[in-house]
Design goal:
Elements: H1 4-38, H2 43-56, H3 77-82, H4 84-87, H5 91-113, H6 116-135, H7 140-155, H8 159-172, H9 189-205, H10 213-230, H11 238-246, H12 252-269, H13 277-293, H14 303-316, H15 322-336, H16 345-355, H17 360-374, H18 378-386
Helix pairs in contact: 1-5, 1-6, 5-6, 5-7, 6-14, 7-8, 7-14, 8-9, 12-13, 13-14, 13-17, 14-15, 15-17
Length: 387
């Protein structure tokens, strides 16, 4: 009985922290809506809305429209179609729905793969990057949420929902398709492969609901041209770090191919560990980080995807070692806080902007995750501890 009071107090403290984190996320949605949709109209959102209308009218999505907005649309024609409902309602209301969708997807997804306490920790860790994604009116928080939903639904033996989440993410950005690889741990692999293939075909032809075949073909040709141009970029990536170190101008694709092989190798070859929930969760974290550090178009707002992986990794750890705490601190200081006001301007300019250094802690974590995935199985570790 004497232990009951501390237990109740601890439970109340946990609920208080959960409520505080939830209020912070809700406040972020409202504040960024006011900032980007009321006080002025965000340029990225103007691009998304204009692209949806251009698709309907058979106008080139990927041309410049300086009278409407700066920069150019770089998402898929399918994304332009899916965004259409937010292109025809008032700007501020559309912004509110978009922000709520992004933040809500990531918030709920974390709760589906972690315990309540772990999810609260993960939500607190990823909060600043989620806020940064909302401030830039990007789709990255939504994409991260969809990738985690994919894992969660496969874990619940609901492959149709898992594949659907991955395909929706793929309609926004191509790389969320990597989340389908978590299906290797579960039954119905062949049906998942067939469903995914059919879903990709559907995504390609989905815009035919509002445009002609000839117009859609022209859109894909324009998209291909702009993607080829952007393929020369290195972004905040492993490839950028290699260029900083060696200055050789090596192409990105061999390094991306090597990263892909390193990503999937433990999932394919460590079959004896497929039944371990920690192994599968580590692989999810590896996928989330991979999609940023090997993505030549990654930029600062994209980091919410990788930081979500880091947050899940840290929140799910049991009996954290000094080395794990040190790595987490490295990520907090040099990745999460790197682009915030907490970081002195001179350090931002000379280290993080000049060398894209905020990528480094995530590369270190990704390597550490690969080592965990190749490490001894949980049963073997427990046996070694008993001996």
């Amino acid at each position: 009985m004497p232990d009951a009071v501390p237990s109740v107090d601890r439970s109340r403290s946990i609920r208080t922290v959960e409520l505080l984190v939830a209020v912070l996320w809700l406040g972020a949605v409202i504040a960024t809506t006011v900032q980007q949709g009321v006080t002025h109209q965000n340029n990225n959102f103007l691009i998304f809305r204009a692209a949806s209308l251009h698709l309907m009218h058979g106008i080139d999505l990927y041309a410049a429209y300086p009278a409407l907005h700066e920069d150019m649309f770089k998402y898929s024609p399918a994304f332009a179609l899916l965004f259409l409902p937010l292109a025809v309602i008032p700007f501020a209301l559309a912004m509110l729905v978009w922000n709520a969708l992004n933040a809500g997807a990531l918030y709920l997804a974390l709760g589906m793969v972690l315990t309540r306490r772990q999810a609260t920790v993960a939500r607190a860790v990823v909060f600043l990057d989620m806020l940064g994604s909302l401030q830039n009116v990007q789709s990255n928080a939504l994409v991260a949420g969809l990738m985690i939903f994919t894992f969660a639904w496969y874990e619940r033996n609901r492959p149709v929902l898992g594949t659907a989440a991955a395909l929706i993410g793929t309609a926004i950005k191509i790389f969320p398709l990597a989340a389908v690889s978590v299906a290797v741990f579960h039954r119905r692999k062949l049906s998942v492969a067939v469903t995914t293939a059919l879903g990709l075909v559907a995504i390609v032809f989905l815009p035919l609901l509002v445009t002609s075949p000839a117009s859609l073909l022209a859109q894909y040709e324009s998209w291909r041209a702009i993607e080829l141009k952007d393929s020369r970029e290195l972004g905040f990536t492993v490839m950028q770090m290699v260029e900083v170190l060696f200055r050789q101008g090596w192409p990105a694709w061999p390094q991306q191919l090597a990263g892909t092989l390193l990503l999937v190798a433990p999932a394919l070859l460590r079959r004896e560990r497929w039944g371990e929930q920690t192994f599968r969760l580590d692989y999810l974290c590896s996928v989330l980080i991979y999609c940023v550090i090997f993505n030549h178009q990654s930029e600062s707002p994209t980091f919410v995807i990788a930081v979500a992986g880091a947050a899940v990794w840290f929140a799910a750890l049991h009996g954290r070692t000094l080395r794990e705490w040190a790595l987490f601190g490295f990520i907090v200081v040099c990745t999460i806080l790197a682009s915030s006001d907490a970081m002195p301007n001179a350090v931002q300019r000379e280290l993080f902007d000049r060398y894209h250094f905020k990528t480094v802690p995530l590369i270190v974590l990704w390597v550490a995750l690969q080592m965990r995935l190749w490490g001894a199985s949980q049963l073997r570790r427990e046996a070694n501890q008993r001996n």
